[in-house]
């Protein structure tokens, strides 16, 4: 909400200053702020919609809504921010800029205020990161990760625009401001690519990180009734939701009732150790006799028969 309000105010100020001064760098920054404002609306929708409980149509819940709306936010940054900024820079290099240096003073003031507002928004986002544990664990949230990326990019973009406009005023060469606009565009395209790539991976079904998958596999192997873990599949279903599916081979001699009790106990054990694993499925395999003879239980390893 802080980022949305800041971006709306800044977008209007930048657009007015850019038109008044005829500044391509300031207009690029205005497009950047408009894109950021639209993206904050996307992210607010992501937060609201991803909290809906599971239903018959979506039995695994709506956690992936965060990934979908974050992908739209990345597309918005690319199209509305990056492409427009590159266009402004190219046009300035080709045709020059209408130099109204009296308006440039107002434009520099607008950018100074924008830098202050963007800095406050960035500090607020970083404070939220610290509240959620700090570091990479907090940035698992695609909405928060997008806000931090947007605000960090905005601070750097405003700085580039300030430098470009100041050098244009001092030297009279529009190439400085056009270069600043192109740099802002390249920066936004890069950020949009990184955010879009992460959202795409999560949306199509990203596995848990290898360290977490390894811990889950080790806990399964440690169960006395499990002979071997044939396969383990994980998929992030939301910010704090994960599907775990394991194909396991049990030790010989368990009857059907014992197998059922063992499966329930293992699922509960995994849920206690890994709270995010709220969907656990176990598939009990029946390996051929030849393979069973080579298993740890058959050869006497790990206390087997």
Q: How many helix segments? A: 11
What's the end-to-end separation, in Å? 62 Å
Structural class: mainly alpha
Strand percentage lies at 5-15%
Label the overall shape.
elongated
Low-confidence stretches: 288-305
Mean pLDDT: 79
**What topology, given as strand order, has the largest sheet?**
1-2-3
SSE string: HHHHHHHHEEHEHH
Rg value? 27 Å
How many distinct beta strands?
A: 3
User: Portion of residues in helices?
Assistant: 55-70%
Biggest beta-sheet profile: 3 strands, mixed
Task: Describe the fold and architecture.
There is one protein chain. With 305 residues, this protein is mainly alpha-helical. 70% of the residues lie in helices and 10% in strands. The protein contains 11 helices and 3 strands, in the order ααααααααββαβαα. The chain has helices at 2-21, 24-50, 65-95, 101-131, 135-138, 142-171, 174-203, 210-221, 256-273, 289-293, 296-299, and strands at residues 226-238, 241-250, 279-285. It has a 3-stranded mixed beta sheet with strand order 1-2-3. Helix 2 (24-50) packs antiparallel against helix 6 and helix 6 (142-171) runs antiparallel to helix 7. It starts with a helix and ends in a 6-residue tail after the last helix. The relative contact order is 0.12.
In brief, what are we looking at here?
This protein is mostly helical. It has helices spanning 2-21, 24-50, 65-95, 101-131, 135-138, 142-171, 174-203, 210-221, 256-273, 289-293, 296-299; strands at 226-238, 241-250, 279-285.
Question: Could you list some keywords that capture this structure?
Answer:
305 residues; mainly alpha; three-stranded mixed beta sheet; 11 helices; 70% helix; elongated; disordered C terminus
């Amino acid at each position: 909400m802080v980022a949305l309000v800041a971006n709306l105010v800044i977008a209007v100020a930048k657009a007015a200053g850019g038109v008044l001064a005829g500044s391509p760098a300031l207009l690029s920054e205005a497009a950047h702020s408009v894109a950021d404002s639209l993206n904050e609306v996307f992210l607010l929708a992501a937060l609201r919609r991803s909290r809906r409980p599971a239903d018959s149509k979506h039995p695994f819940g709506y956690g992936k809504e965060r990934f979908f709306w974050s992908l739209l936010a990345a597309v918005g940054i690319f199209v509305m921010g990056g492409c427009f900024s590159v266009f402004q820079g190219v046009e300035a290099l080709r045709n020059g800029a209408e130099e109204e240096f009296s308006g440039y003073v107002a434009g520099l003031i607008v950018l100074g205020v924008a830098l202050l507002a963007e800095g406050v928004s960035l500090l607020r986002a970083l404070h939220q990161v610290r509240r959620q544990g700090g570091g990479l664990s907090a940035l698992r949230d695609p909405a928060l990760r997008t806000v931090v990326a947007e605000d960090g990019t905005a601070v750097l973009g405003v700085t580039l625009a300030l430098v470009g406009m100041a050098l244009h005023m001092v030297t009279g060469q529009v190439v400085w401001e056009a270069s600043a606009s192109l740099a802002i565009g390249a920066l936004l395209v890069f950020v949009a690519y990184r955010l879009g790539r992460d959202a795409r991976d999560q949306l199509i079904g990203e596995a848990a990180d290898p360290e977490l998958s390894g811990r889950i596999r080790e806990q399964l192997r440690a169960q006395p009734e499990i002979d071997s873990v044939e396969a383990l599949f994980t998929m992030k279903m939301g910010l704090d939701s994960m599907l775990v599916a394991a194909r396991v081979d049990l030790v010989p001699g368990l009857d059907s009732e014992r197998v059922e009790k063992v499966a329930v106990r293992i699922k509960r054990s995994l849920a206690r150790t890994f709270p995010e694993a709220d969907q656990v499925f176990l598939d009990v395999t029946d390996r051929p006799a030849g393979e069973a003879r080579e298993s740890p239980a058959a050869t006497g390893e790990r206390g087997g028969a």
